[in-house]
Amino acid sequence: MTLSRRNFFGIMAGTGSMILGRTKKATAWESKAPDNPYACLVDLTRCVGCRKCEEACNQANHLPPPDISFDDKRVFDTKRRPDDSRYTVVNRYYGGKKNEQDELLPTFVKIQCMHCQDPSCVSACIVGALTKKDNGAVHYDVSKCIGCRYCMVACPFEIPAYEYHNPMTPQVRKCTFCFEKISKTGGRPACASVCPMEAITFGPRKKLLDIANKRIHENPGKYVHTIYGEKEMGGTSWMYLSAEPFESLGFQKLPLAPPPKLTETIQHSLFSFLWSPILLYSVLSGVMCLKNKDDKGGSHES
Amino acid sequence: MSHNPYPLQKKFFTPGVYVMLVFMLAGGVTILARFIGGIGYVSNLTNLYPWGLWIGIDVASGVALAAGGFTTAALAHIMGKHQYEPIIRPALLTAALGYTFVVLGLLVDIGRTWAIWKPMIYWNPNSVLFEVAMCVMIYLNVLYIEFIPIVTQQFKSRFRLLGVLEEHLDKIMWIFIVAGVVLSCMHQSSLGSLMLIAPTKVHPLWYTPILPLLFLVSAIAVGYPMVIFETTLITSSMNLDAEMDTLTPLSKISIYLLGLYMILKIGDMIVRGTYIYLFDFTAQSNAFLCEMGLGGVVPWIMLCFEKIRQSRKGLFIISCLIIFGVLINRINVFIVGFKPFYSTTSYFPAIGEILVTSGLIATLMFIYRLAVTWLPVLSAKAKKGGV
Questions:
Q1: What is the pLDDT of residues A44-53, one digit of tens each?
Q2: Strand locations in chain A (E)
Q3: A83 to chain B: closest CA residue
Q4: N or C: which end of chain A has fewer CB within 10 A?
C-alpha cells in the first residue's frame, strides 16, 4: 500500500516536471495588435460637457431616448456608466483645477469602449464573437454570441453592457467605434465628427500620438505628461490628454501588460497541439496497464 | 471482489423527498420567470457583476465537488486499488449528476440559451472558457458512457441487446476511464485560469498566476472527502452499513492531498506577499481566513488523528469542513473576491438566483435517490434490523 502510494506521487511529480520543462520551450506570447489602426484622441482640456457626442451616438446607433434630455446639465450630478441604452457618457469631475476666484473648475470626461490594442474581451470570448479589426474597432458579431458575459468579466475598463431584460435574444452592447462609418474612406465616428470643441481627434494612432506629444510639449504646464491609453493594458485606440492627474478624473491606474498575455501564455504552453493531455493520457494508460496486470484480484474491471 | 452493488428498492417517498419537491417546484417557477422576463428579472446581476451565484456555485463549485468521479476512478481503476471499487459507482453517479447540473445551471445563466451549441462551431482557442466548455461537454458524455454498465446490469435480463452492449463496452471502457481523468485535470485547472483575465478585479488574496494549479489540486483534494460525505449521508439516510473500512483508509490519502494544497496556497501567499491583506477585516480578508482556517487547517489537523478518522462522526465533520473550504474558495474567487473598480454597490444574490440554485441541487439529490433506489449503485450492506 505504502509503495503504491509512493508510485502514485512519483508519477504525478514526473508528469508535473515534464509539463514544466515543456512550458519553458513554448514560444513567447506575441501581441496581435494592428500596427497603426484608427484611433481617437480626447483632449479633456477642450471638452465643455455639451453632450453633443452622446446625442450623436444615440442617433447613429438608434438607441432609445435618454432618461434626462441631452441639454439638461443636472445629468452631471451623478456619475454614469455606459450601458445598453448609451454607448458613451460624459461625466463631470472636480479634479482640483481652480480659476482666479479660487473656484473649482469642472473637467468633463467622455467614456466609451477604449478599443484596446490587445483586448481582453476578444481573448476571452468563447466563440470569437468579439474581434479586433485592422481599422481599430473591437467588433461584436451577435450571430456567434451565446451570452456567457465572459467579455464583461474580462474588460478592465468595465465597459460591455448587457440587455438583462431581454429573455431570449439579449446582446452585449458597447461602443462600435462606428465600425461601418470608419470602414469607408473619410468616415469618422459620430461623436468625433459632431464635437464642436474639436476635443475628439480621429486619425491613425501613430499620428495621434505625435499630435498628443506635440500638444504636451508646445504648451508647457498645461497637460500632465501622460497620454492615457498609450500604454495602459497594452495600449488602446482611444487615448486621453488631461490637465489634471488621471486618477482624480475617474481613470483607473492600470498595469501596462495586456491581460491576455498571461492567460494565452498559460493556455498555449499547456495545450498547444494538445501535447499535455496526450502525454497524460499515455502515462495514465501505461500505469493502468501495469497496475492491473500484476493484480490477480483485478478481474472485475477491464 | 466482495462488493456487489444492488438497487436498494426501499420506500422512495419520505418527508425529506417532499421537501426536495418543494424546492424543485420553486426553482422551476423561477426558471420559467427567467425565460419570460429575462435574467435581470430574477437576478441581481449587473454590467459590473456579470457573473454571480449561478457561475460561482452551479458551475465552479459544481465542477469542483464532482471531482470525486475522476479521483476515485484514478485510484481504483488506474492505480489498481480494487478495495475502493465499492465507492466508484456512487462517486460516478455524483459526477454524472453534478456535471448535468452544471450544464443546466449554464442554460439558465447564459443569455442565449438556444445558442449553447455555438462553441462547437465557432472556436476561440485563446479563450480559457472555450477550453473549459469543450472539456465539460466531452467529459459529460464520457460520464454517461461510464454510467451505461450500471443501467445495463439492471435491465439486461429483460433486454438481450443490453447484455451485448455491456460486453462490448467493457472491452473499451478503459479508454473512457483514462479520458475522464485527463479531461478532468484539464478543465479543473482551467476553471482557475478563467479569472486570470481580470487582474484588476480579483482581490490579490486570490489572484495568482498559479490559480489553475490551486484549482486542480483542491479539486483532487476534495474528491475523496466528497465521496466520504455522500456515502455517509446516503448510508445513514437509507439505514445502511457505514462502510468505514473503505472510508477510513481513503481519508488517509487526504492528509497528503490537502497538505499539498495548503502548502501551495500558503507558499503562494508568502511569495507574493499578500499576507499584508490578511487582517484588513474586510469581507475579502475575513472570507479568506474562513476559507483557509475552517476549511483547510482545521480539517487537516483533525485528519492527522487516527482516532477521528476512525469515527464515523469525526470523518463526516472532516469531510464537511474540506468541502466547505473548497466551496468557499470557489465562491471567493468568483464572487467575494471579485471587485470591479467602478462598482458602487456590492453583489448579493437575489432570491430568484438562490431559488434556481437550490432547486437544481434538490433535483440533483432527488435523481440521486431515484438512482440508488432503482439501479445497482451502492454496495453497502443493510444494517442488522434494516430492510
A1: 999 999 999 9
A2: 38-43, 89-93, 107-111, 130-132, 138-140, 161-162, 172-173, 200-204, 238-241
A3: B47
A4: N
Q: What is the pLDDT of residues B100-154, one digit of tens each?
A: 999 999 999 999 999 999 999 999 999 999 999 999 999 999 999 999 999 998 8
Q: Number of residue pairs across A and B with CB atoms under 8 Å?
A: 217
Residues in chain A closer than 8 A to B199 (CB atoms): 156, 255, 259, 262
C-alpha distances in Å from residue A162, one per residue of A86, A133, A174: 11, 22, 9
Please indicate whether, in this complex, the C-beta atoms of B39 and A83 are within 8 angstroms of each other. no
Nearby residues of B11 by Cβ (< 8 Å), 6 or more positions away: none
- What does the CA dihedral A24, A27, A30, A32 come to, rounded to 10 degrees? -130
Asked if the Cβ–Cβ distance from B124 to A4 is below 8 Å, we say no
Specify whether domain B53-350 bears CATH 1.10.8: no
**CA diameter of chain B:** 66
Statement: residue A27 has pLDDT above 80? no
On whether the CB atoms of residues A197 and A46 are closer than 8 A, the answer is: yes
| Residues in B touching A81 (Cβ below 8 Å) | 47-48, 342
- Choose, out of A80, A118, A150, the residue to mutate when testing the contact with B (most B CBs < 10 Å): A150
DSSP state string for B99-164: HHHHHHHHHHHSS-GGGTTGGGTS--TT-HHHHHHHHHHHHHHHHHHHHHHHHHHHHTTT-HHHHH
Flag whether the pTM goes above 0.95: no
